[in-house]
UniProtKB/TrEMBL annotation:
Domain Aminotransferase class I/classII large, chain residue ranges per copy: 27-393
Protein name per UniProt: Aspartate aminotransferase
Superkingdom as given in the UniProt entry: Eukaryota
Cellular component annotations (GO), alphabetically ordered: mitochondrion
Subunit structure: Homodimer.
Protein source organism: Wickerhamiella sorbophila
Pfam family, one: Aminotran_1_2
InterPro entries assigned: Aminotransferase_I/II_large, Asp_trans, NHTrfase_class1_PyrdxlP-BS, PyrdxlP-dep_Trfase, PyrdxlP-dep_Trfase_major, PyrdxlP-dep_Trfase_small
EC number(s) recorded for this UniProt protein: 2.6.1.1
Cofactor(s) the record lists: pyridoxal 5'-phosphate
Similarity-based family: Belongs to the class-I pyridoxal-phosphate-dependent aminotransferase family.
Length: 398
């Protein structure tokens, strides 16, 4: 029956994991993973998540369906975390918000909404962007274009290119912005650059769609990481926002996220809400409840929330420490290259500037696995493997 089905290409990241698993070297390092690891290289479940889960189980709640847009005590608290509890759209009851199947689900619901209601049906992504962005937006029927973001020659933001491309965009085009900890480059705009981006977006009448998969993971401070989103909203632009709790709560497999749209009035919000329901219903009917209950327990309990913010900070701090350590070791080995980008970049990923051939040598000669674009996951680095990693990078980069 399916003789006409062609073999699809393998997922690039999963391919790395396979190669890593097959490698028998004891000093092998997997830097392809997009999930936090503790200093022993193990997956990490937050103490506050364990505690919240215990409380949730203790309540002996039923397992009935959630409403189509999910649990209100989760998505209300999630929105406050992103926009700030004093945010005007929340206070004025004009934020349409829905629980979603993590960040990817939020993107897909948002993409479907834009495909239905944004007349241009066009979205611009930064070059490069998280690989799944293009797939999600195309699948929803949007035309996907690009704007310049990263300058290979300086290993930093191509701010002039970014501005020039947004200035050229047709009014009504959507623009995807990584709210913080840009994946895959780890390069974020400064506050001043965000303000300039805001000005262009406003002047050109573009529609800003923020993807915030790493709130708290960039600086360790959830408010600081929400700077760009809040600046746009507080200055009157109606943004849409995707949130994920995969990284900052370590709830990867629970699939817990949110999608929201800032509206002009409660009446507009009601119309948008009704359409979000119409989009979600045939996709997956309603979202899972367990992760939402855990996240809600944490976000709605002042003490647990404070403790959680501390855990987010300690994860971010460990990554910042590993960046410093890696740079220091490379410099101590006598590398003449400038490694300042290792510490100036932010979040879970580092764009090393290594070429695909150098990445191949890292794997074949040193059992160090990253993606061929030169991206390494900082989470995979720990006190026990950073020496080997530095030696390997030094050897292939000369
Ligand atoms: N957006 C970006 C930029 C990401 O890096 C990720 C995770 N790698 C996501 C969205 C979505 O992840 P999830 O669906 O696991 O929340």
């Amino acid at each position: 029956t399916w003789a006409n089905v062609p073999q699809g290409p393998p997922d690039a990241i999963l391919g790395i994991t396979e190669a890593f698993k097959a490698d028998t070297a004891s000093h092998k390092i997997n830097l392809g993973v997009g999930a936090y690891r503790d200093n022993e290289g193990k997956p990490f479940v937050l103490n506050t998540v364990r505690e919240a889960e215990k409380r949730v189980v203790g309540k002996k709640l039923d397992k009935e369906y959630a409403p189509i847009t999910g649990l209100a005590n989760f998505y209300t608290a999630a929105a406050e975390l992103a926009y700030g509890s004093n945010s005007a759209p929340i206070k004025e009851n004009r934020l349409a918000v829905s629980q979603t199947i993590s960040g990817t689900g939020a993107l897909r619901v948002g993409a479907e909404f834009l495909a239905k209601f944004l007349p241009s049906k066009k979205i611009l992504l930064p070059t490069p962007s998280w690989a799944n962005h293009k797939a999600v937006f195309s699948a929803a029927g949007l035309e996907v274009g690009q704007y310049r973001y990263y300058d290979k020659s300086t290993i930093s933001l191509d701010f002039d290119g970014l501005k020039a491309d947004l200035e050229q965009a047709a009014p009504g085009t959507a623009v995807l912005l990584h709210a913080c900890a840009h994946n895959p480059t780890g390069v974020d705009p400064t506050k001043e650059q965000w303000q300039a981006i805001f000005n262009v977006v406003k002047e050109r009448q573009l529609f800003p769609l923020f993807d915030m998969a790493y709130q708290g993971f960039a600086s360790g401070d959830c408010d600081r990481d929400a700077y760009a989103v809040r600046y746009f909203v507080d200055n009157g632009l109606p943004v849409a926002l995707n949130q994920s709790f995969a990284k900052n709560m370590g709830l990867y497999g629970e699939r817990i996220g949110a999608f929201s749209i800032v509206c002009e009035s409660p009446e507009e919000k009601a119309r948008v809400d009704s359409q979000l329901k119409i989009i979600v219903r045939p996709l997956y009917s309603n979202p899972p409840i367990h992760g939402a209950r855990i996240a809600a327990e944490i976000l709605n309990d002042a003490q647990l929330k404070q403790q959680w913010l501390g855990e987010v900070k300690s994860m971010a701090d460990r990554m910042i420490e590993m960046r410093s350590l890696l740079r220091e070791k490379l410099e101590n080995l006598g590398s003449k290259k400038d490694w300042s980008h290792v510490t100036s970049q932010i979040g879970m990923f580092c764009y090393t500037g290594l070429s695909p051939e150098q990445v191949d040598r890292l794997a074949s000669e040193f059992s160090v696995y990253g993606t061929r674009d030169g991206r390494i996951s900082i989470c995979g680095i720990n006190a026990s493997n950073v020496d080997h990693l530095a030696k390997a990078i030094f050897a292939v980069s000369g």
